[in-house]
Amino acid sequence: MQKEQIIQRKILLGQQEVEYFHHIKKVKNINLRIKVDGSVHISAAKYVPLKAIEQMIQTHGDYILAAIQKAKPQEEKAYHEGDCYHFLGRAFAIRLKTSNKRSTQIHPEKKEVEICLPDIENIESRRKEIYRFEKESCEELFPEILERMHELFADEKIPYPELKFRRMKSRWGSCNPSKNIITMNTMLIQAPVSVMEYVMVHELAHLVHPNHSKEFHQLVEQKKPNWRLRKKKLKDFFGQEEEL
Q1: What pLDDT shows up at residue 87?
Q2: Rounded to an integer, what distance in angstroms lies between the CA atom of residue 212 and that of residue 231?
């Protein structure tokens, strides 16, 4: 029995680059599905050529772009005074302070995170400041995690990838093997380091196997034998199942 394989691909629809997931499985037709998070999924049998799949995507391009636009966004936090905010897996109470200088500071001894803004009552300003803080924190921490996790793949002799960061709604990380780029979701800075390591290993494994094949999962198992526990911790921590 053929096991399903999933390959991450990209296609240009008009002026917009769209990421889609190519599911290779035992089906009669080429099937298109767009999830509520706006991710695009195409299912087709192994013998169907990629050209035929992408021609089908182009044919339904307007529908796909409209569906992505209408996709239900995740509820965004308002970061009110006293709300709980997680950083590296630890919980901190939010404290808001009016200041001419924009900053976010973690105070471990008080178990508080202090957000300073000129317009502290503006919810969107608070979000932008937290997003900035998370990206900056990722830029400081993740290069060291990448260095340690890359060493696990010494036998595979994979190239050292370029590391990028952005806030993503439906993915914890992504890998572009052809360009040797790994992108990490900046929200991961909220989680324990063990969770970040798991996501990094997952993406590094895609530089060897750019799919979710049996060989891919065997490689992840080899590098992180407890990866299932870490994946469960990721799901439990954020309370949702996002894709890798």
Answers
A1: 95
A2: 15
pLDDT value of position 195: 93
> Using CA atoms, how far apart are residues 231 and 97, in angstroms rounded to an integer?
36
Among 57, 30, 58, CA closest to 43: 30
Count CB atoms within 10 A of the CB of residue 81.
Answer: 11
Distance of alpha carbon 12 from alpha carbon 54, whole angstroms: 10
Strand (E) or helix (H) holding 87? strand 84-87
Q: Residue 175: which of 184, 166, 187 has the closest Cα?
A: 184
pTM of the model: 0.68
Q: Which residues of the chain have pLDDT under 50?
A: 1, 74, 240-242
Q: CA-to-CA distance for 53 and 32, rounded, in angstroms?
A: 10
Take residue 223 and report the two structure tokens written for it: 């590098």
Tally the residues of the chain.
244
Per residue in 107-131, pLDDT (tens digit) is 999 999 999 999 999 999 999 999 9
